[in-house]
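Homework help thread (please don't just give me the answer)

Our assignment gives two proteins as sequence + structure token strings and asks us to describe the second one. The first is just a warm-up. Here they are:
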Amino acid sequence: PHVLQIHPAHALGLYELYTDDRQILYVDEAVTTLVAGDLIEAHNLHNMTEARLKILGAVKPGDLPLNLALKRVKGNGKRVVAVFSDPDCPFCRKLEKELSSITDVTVYTFLYPIASLHPDAPERSHWIACSKDPEKAWEDYQLRNIEPIHHECQDQLEEVQNLGEKYRISGTPTLVFADGEVVPGALPRAELEKALGPH
């Protein structure tokens, strides 16, 4: 891994090293000792490393170019989440099933195929992006297993790939909530509702 940022850790005279694979390592001032693992405050069991990772990995609201995403509005659409998703990822399908039962949300889906895991995903993403109704094609494939019709167009998948690399999105699904928190994985409905906030 490459170190992206160095900050004082406010514990034991250590410095935190934030790496390009979204991890924090710690080093002493003399750079003689490297510590891998979580720093936890003993008096209240607060995980300082986890708290810093949330801050360092956050995406500033408004920084995501939402014009590159599929947009689905349910109910009043007041709550917002962006999802980097691969059409052939089984965990993405699981997340889509959970999202389908949630109301009053706007979901921005960035088609983010990971070809090394799902060789057909880039082509399928292209067909979804180029369909007459990409949002419907996405839901049809994710929720009903209906293959997208083969259409050709100039898609924006390369721009989305670059965006994902910029924010070090290494797996799917990866969610970005309105407060900037980045959460990897398919969350169950209760956790989604909590992260999305009130209607």
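The one we have to describe:
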Amino acid sequence: MQFGVVLPNFSRLGTREAQVELAREAEALGYDSIWTTDHVMMAKGQEEPYGLILEALVTLAYLAPLTERVKLGASVIVLTQREPVLVAKQAATIDYLSGGRLILGVGAGWNEREFGYLGASFHDRGRRLEEYIRALRELWTSPDPRLEGQYVQFSDVLFAPRPAQPNGPPIWIGGASAAALRRSAQMADGWHPVGASPEAVAAGMRRIGEMANGRRVEGTLRLRTAIGRTLPEQRGANGQVQATLSGEPEALIARVREYQAAGVSHLLTHFGDNDRDSFLEDMRRFAAEVRPGFQSG
């Protein structure tokens, strides 16, 4: 089991100082990865918690030379709001400069108003996501990149430098819909839901296994996390109640074991975004009192 830390690149802790301090502390504590969250511009009335947010890929690039070992991940880039060839270049550059440490989580997105601000198409975002992923893979791995898609076309091009990782950064698909499960099974390296219960994870991993044709797809998960206290009810963008990871250390260990049995091998802990001292305390206690019971790798 590997453990990551979701950095608060948004809300009250979305500052340069907080990113540097928390990223370095996560690495010093032995966490396997650090993660940023992606939004670009929210409407008034939708500002919590993403009204103030540092751009996800730029933040990872900034943190790469300030860390040495931890994987650098996006949880997740709304790929369908972005120009895919540029994302391929940005991701390849971060991976190359960091020595092969990037993990690229991608999703179809949910905020229709934000799509409009960025001049992106909302209603065909599922088809776009699949074609954009094909574009990333082609540019990262092909000696002669070519794609004649509905949305993306290129041929007779040079794309260099390549990512440091031979097959490019691992791609995780965000979401828990039937389409997200299918895409994870068919074209991703990992499935990455947020706030899913152990039962939902187990069911999703079974379904992915049925569709993956023998491909290995990593089970990953992002959870709001606190130690020594119980978190209030959390709801996602769709209004549904999300599972959390909170309570005394013994309860957290038992819960993580449930997720491990369900198929999770990389768990992202999100310790909040408003209070530095609370974030540090939870991150340190989790590292000292919960994580030692699980073998890393």
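TA reply:
I won't write it for you, but here's a hint about the kind of observation we're looking for: Residues 98 and 130 are 27 Å apart (CA to CA).
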